[in-house]
Amino acid sequence: MVETPIANVVTLATGCNYISIVKRKLEDLGSRQPDTLPPPTASELEEALGEKISKCDLWRKNWRNRIYFVQLASGESAVAKQVVRGDDAMVQYQYNQLRALAALGIPGLHLPRALALIIPKRTILMEFVHGQTLRELARHGSADDLVAVSELSGQILAQIHLAWTQEIAPMPVEVLARDLAAAPWHLSPREKAILKASLEILAQAKVSMGQVCYDYQSKNLLYNKSELTLIDPPDALWQGIHLWDYSRFRSGLRRMLWRIYLRQPLRRHRHARLRETFTAFKRGYIECFNKQHPEPAHFAVATRLLELQHTGMSMAMNQGKLNLARRLKSARPLLVATKSSLTTFPLLELEKRWLIQQLARELP
Ligand SMILES: Nc1ncnc2c1ncn2[C@@H]1O[C@H](COP(=O)(O)OP(=O)(O)OP(=O)(O)O)[C@@H](O)[C@H]1O
Ligand SMILES: [Mg+2]
Fold it and tell me: Which of 127, 155, 297, 340 has the CB geometry, 3.0–4.6 Å to 112, for a possible disulfide?
């Protein structure tokens, strides 16, 4: 651990306001002119890679990014990720992080090899990695594999956090309280009281802080032959409580399992095995720390509170996307995003209520 100057401590704590940050980012996007960024051309790709390509096909697309599958003349496959809604700095940062995270040398963690960068097209070229995302594995793969890879995901995340620990500090409950108050939800008086009680208890907790991955979750992790690939490293210097990454992974896992329970309600035995992913992930994470922060008495409540912050952030994101789609009626990816926002908003409301109930049970 390194000594941290006071000014930096303030930045770390204030960096925990993810709900407010998402709201501000989406408002910023809405105030800008719609971006019509053309795809990278074959000659731009060839010049950046320094070799010929035999094909480049649009493979995936969402409201933020376009992902192209590129075949090189040498036979190697690559991915070109074009950031349509974002800026040059985000692209440069994510490209650098591919190398920075690989340089940590964490056993079992792989990063796609960074191949080239085309800043005017906001495009990152990287190695194509074979494998299934953990989300795909949960849907179509073996539950045993998912349990094993969840434990590995916990071990790897803990090692990233150990490398990135800047300080062990009191949980910044005031910042969190302000951020939770900015979420676009309505809380009943009972829910407000539970939240207040949790924050009072967590004021005594100490947490590990520093750089966070921000989006360490099942859809951004590929599994292949006992190795985990983080395909979507941070696109900016996100800092805050390390437990944020832990909670975000849990939230992603829970949402994914809820969907599976709804789609395949009769496969009870498989569901029970899939639920073991939570304990496996926790076991992996905790065993890599010689000293746990927060300490066991506060771990469950702190995790749950940050899961709730994640729900608030998802609500803010969905609401922001809806506003943006209303403003830019012609943007098709945004209309798709809007449709999914409409269906997920009631689910997020349920999730919020459920998390607050769990929080009430976990309070000492
Ligand atoms: N290097 C890679 N090798 C193989 N597949 C990749 C690679 N990079 C991206 N993909 C595929 O493209 C999908 C989207 O990539 P990425 O997560 O970087 O974009 P995104 O806009 O954050 O999408 P999402 O919201 O689904 O996470 C991944 O789920 C994965 O299937
Ligand atoms: Mg992603």
Answer: 127
Atom from ligand 1 closest to the CA of residue 60: 12
Chain mean pLDDT for the chain: 90
* Cα 230 to ligand 1 centroid, rounded to whole Å: 10
Model confidence at 289, in pLDDT bands (50, 70, 90)? confident
Same domain, 258 and 344: yes
- Which residue's CA is the closest to the ligand 1 atom numbered 1? 128
Residue where a domain stops, chosen among 101, 127, 153 = 127
Predicted confidence (pLDDT) per residue in 176-192, tens digit: 999 999 999 999 999 99
The answer to pTM > 0.85 is yes
Q: Ligand 2 center to residue 220 CA distance, Å? A: 5
Ligand 1 pocket, residues with Cβ under 6 angstroms? 60, 62, 64-65, 67, 79, 81, 112, 126-129, 133, 219-220, 231-232
Cα atoms found within 13 Å of the Cα of residue 112, Cβ hemisphere only:
26
Nearest alpha-carbon partner for 311 in 342, 338, 347, 336: 347
Domain count of the fold of the chain: 2
Of 57, 92, 127, which residue constitutes the final position of a domain?
A: 127
Closest ligand by atom to 223 CA? 1
Closest by alpha carbon to 26, among 340, 338, 354? 338
Same-domain check for residues 156 and 270: yes
Residues 271 and 358 both lie in one domain:
yes
Which one-letter DSSP state was computed for residue 135?
H
- Could you tell me the residue range of the domain that residue 53 belongs to? 42-127
**CA 292 to ligand 1 centroid distance, Å:** 32
**Burial 162-198, CB ≥16 within 10 A → b, else e:** bebbbbebebbbebbeebbebbebebeeebeebbeeb
